[in-house]
Amino acid sequence: MQNFGVVIFILAILISLSTVTDKLRLPYPVLLVLAGILIGVIPHLPQLTLDPELIFLVFLPPLLYDAATHASWHEFKTNIRPISALGISLVFFTMTAVALTAHYFIPMFSWPLAFLLGAIVSPPDATAATGIIKGLGLNKQVISILEGESLLNDASALIAYRYALIAATTGNFLFWQAGLQFLLVAGGGIFVGVIAGYGLTVLHKRINNHPLVETSLTLLTPFLSFLLGELVHTSGILAVVSTGLFISRRSPEIFSYQTRIQSRVVWDNLIFLLNGFIFILIGLQLPGVLKQLTNYRLPTLIGYGLLISLTTIFVRILWVFGSAWSFQYYNQRKTKKNLQPATKKADPTWKNVLIVAWTGTRGMISMATALALPLTLYNGTPFPERHLIIFVCFVVIFITLVVQGYSLPLLTRLLGIKASDHQDKEEKQLQLYLVRSTLHFLDKEFGQKLESHVRNTLKIEYDQLAEKLANEIATLKRNEKRREQAPIRTLTDIQKAQTEIGLFQRKILLRLHKDGNISNEVIRQVEREMDIDELKFQQLLPKDAE
């Protein structure tokens, strides 16, 4: 009951901080970790420890599943080479570099312990990266690569962690055996995830038009996939990711609009609470860890943490730029071989490469795996340097979150990267295509006979909408070449009148609710219909007017 009170207190802090994030101009994950540290030093507050099993079973599956369902399968497939280079190859390269640094510069770190630390701090955190890059207007391909990397690197790091832990606790390790096992575990996890995704899509089709049941099933999906993957001794994480990507690709044909609206609201709230809670919990770990390290001087501990942090940051920059250069060199060789003329133009891709290289924030997975270290070895002796590993891991998370996370918005401004309207333009173009196709459908293919005045009314409405969308697309194209952005959407006189009418109707509904002459059930039903109408209307308003 005491821990439950602390949980409620943390949730209250989380909700309070979310209201001031924009005003403080601080990335959300950074703010929450700092808040967790401050909460942790409050005297007489019961310590709430981060249970690794809770992270792996309760927090990780829904967070990864949500990220996978938001990812585009087509973009994931298009960028599979850079995603694989970051999500798999870079993880092992980082682990090796950290192991070398820890073994030679931190006393008492044997090779197994050094590789164990490398496996713990090697994967960047999906949640932290998403929270930091949100709203920066980054290149579409950059976002796709960062999101795709976050779907693979956790699985790579956890498999590496598993074998490093075996080597540290038993002293036995066979490289060829670990490599073969990695392929089996990873491949098996993907296979299990696809099978689970296929089964769940069939199930969703059979329970059509039941939004509440379908939304509940989406909440169970990541846990079912994760547990199934773990049950057959494969990667539960890759199973969840594969299931999410499979269902994301099939979602337009298996979910009704009611289910999509309802499940999106539920999932947005769930992910908000899980993300916030986990980052505050990370900050809360520092005071407890420091109490266990009385044999070390604080400057020495911070020095170790900074050393490993700089290693992870430098290795990522080196790897990303090296991979980008080799990829460009390969393309140039291929172009020359095909005798295609090379086009000379200013190449801005180095800016995008730098953004990818700098976005290597660590978080939930690293802290959970560090805390999951056993207390003793198989022979009963205490696990060597366990608390030091946890502290170094915390410093790496803190440095990468605060330094890289806080400086990323500044870096985008220094590089001259402005918020891109590419997605807005693509959305308008799709809407215009739908409208013009509808006009053709009304003229040539409409199955039922329409009265002339009905057909003319519909055509006038869609003609006006097509003209409005065409003007907005033209404005977006002009904005791409201008420093000052012209407004994309403006309020028409009708929209202004509809806004005032909506406010007037809300006042009447509120008065009737207070009078009590009409039942609450009827009022709520009318209110729900007004909410849906207002939601549709808000999509048409200018962003500044929303």
| CATH class value of the largest domain | Mainly Alpha
The secondary-structure element order is: HHHHHHHHHHHHHHHHHHHHH
Report the helical percentage: over 70%
What's the CATH architecture of the largest domain? Up-down Bundle
The number of helical segments is: 21
Structural class: mainly alpha
Number of strands: 0
Low-confidence parts: 341-348
Shape: globular
Q: What's the CATH topology name of the largest domain?
A: Na+/H+ antiporter like fold
Q: What's the oligomerization state? A: single chain
Radius of gyration: 27 Å
Distance between the termini: 42 Å
> Strand content of the residues, in percent?
under 5%
Averaged pLDDT: 80
Return the domain count: 3
Largest sheet: none
Describe it.
It is globular and about 85 Å long. The relative contact order is 0.11. Residues 341-348 have low confidence and may be disordered. The protein is mostly helical. It has 3 domains: 2-414, Na+/H+ antiporter like fold, CATH 1.20.1530; 421-488; 497-546. It is built from 21 helices and no strands. Helix 4 (52-70) packs across helix 11. Helices cover 77% and strands 0% of the residues.
Short structural summary:
The chain is mostly helical and 546 residues long. The chain has 21 helices and no strands.
List the helices and strands and how they pair.
Blueprint: H1 2-18, H2 21-24, H3 28-40, H4 52-70, H5 73-78, H6 80-105, H7 111-121, H8 126-133, H9 140-170, H10 175-206, H11 211-231, H12 236-254, H13 257-291, H14 298-337, H15 349-358, H16 364-371, H17 386-414, H18 422-445, H19 452-479, H20 493-515, H21 520-538
